[in-house]
Amino acid sequence: MTLTAHNKKFPIFLLFFFLSNPLVWASEKNISFFPIFYSSSDKTTTDSHTYISALSPIFEYSSKDNEHFLAFHPLFSQTKSTTTTELDILYPIFRYTGKKTDTPQIKEEKKWILFPLFVKRNRTLNNNIKLKTTVLFPIFFYGRYSDGKGYLIILPFIFYAKNSPVFVPIYLPSKQNFEAFFPLYGNFKKFLGKDSLKFFLFPLFVHSEKKEMKCTSIIWPIFGLFYGEKISGFRLFPLFGFAKKINEEDKIETSAYFIWPLGHHKRYPASIKKSTPPISLDMFFPFFINFKKGNTIIEYYFPFWGRKKSSNQSTTSYLFPFLMVTKNTKDKFSQYRFFGILFNRKTGETKKETQLFPFYGVKKRTNYKRNYVLWPFYTSAEDKMKNVNYKRKYLFPFYISQKKEFNDGSIEKKSCLFPFFGKKKLRDGNISFQTLWLFWYTEDKGIDRNWAPLWAFYKSTKKLNGDFCKSVFGRLYYSEQCDGKKKKEINLFIYRYSSNNKESRHTFFGLISLKKKS
Fold this sequence. Notes:
The protein is mainly beta. 3% of the residues lie in helices and 58% in strands. It has a 48-stranded antiparallel β-sheet.
């Protein structure tokens, strides 16, 4: 029987409670009044590990070498290492990540997310240029490079960009230059397919240019005039619009519409320089369509008959959507569809499909396969990619199975049966298992870190070398093997049992210990 002093430092908000408790003063190296309080530490010449829990599973702290984790479930958690910091508050409401990377473009990145409205990101690129972006959805979008480039958009009033790509709300990867104070004035360059776009007292006056074509609109889009060296036309939207152009080969191109978007007419002659065939279109949607471009022909007389024909494939519809028949000479398949997606049958050498929606469906290709029964209750998929064969099965909303078979023979598998268990097997052979499993997902580090400890009854991990770790209700029962060293614990409020390769110990009330050598 031994009585030992312990000088462990606790988190500051636990000091008052535990220093006022005389049982703590006469504790072992590992302290247990589980689930009120638990602490263990293991230090060697090569590494160190500390674990503390209070009101388990609410408070948790762990430290191993240079990795630290602190959590007050489910309100708060923080993970820190030499390269990464992660902070969650009521995940997924607020999240902060800071990390150093070795990617070709980014050296360091910090990101703040207040879901679903606010995102702030600071990046240091490998050329030491810094990029700051801020989004307050759906009105405020800001980006700034340290070399002076940047953009600012405050919808719907302010638009500004200086020699900078724009990431949100519309992703424009090319360098953008524009300035606008809507609806008073706007000047955009190389924007949305236009060389230049200007407006004044929008929609009173709008002017755009694209190559040699210019367009001036009054009360956009109602009145518009198209003009240029070889271009003329006008628009009275949505009633009628017409444009005529003499192209580089001195051939006339015409296009028109009436009662937009129903009626359209186009005539483009063949181009020798561009190696393009003549194009013709006459349409009054959805009743009549006649389109020709080289070997491609579309004819449609709704709902009686329709045809789309190209050099390798033809599709004919009868009393749409009653029957559609497709013949393909290149991929050598035939397809019959009744009432759109309700019944589908495709037969061919490399393409096969059978569907009676929503009861049953199967689709096969050379590199993938899809199946369902009583969609969306059961679905499965398989993709054969360059380096991996990826298989998935879903029994909504209860079961998920995801399996990756790599070319080197390794396998990664993740599965869950809601709400009972979740299981993962990684490529290195490590296996993890948990029950309960209260979300329909296979992996979400944020949920695992912040929420899962509240309902994880049993957890286990097993490595390929035989090392393992098992726990019940946190540290109520704990067992591990690491590098041949075994450790086992049973922790109750007034009693603790622990054992390792050298000894076993029974501790009562934190005062009395009975030790036995192994």
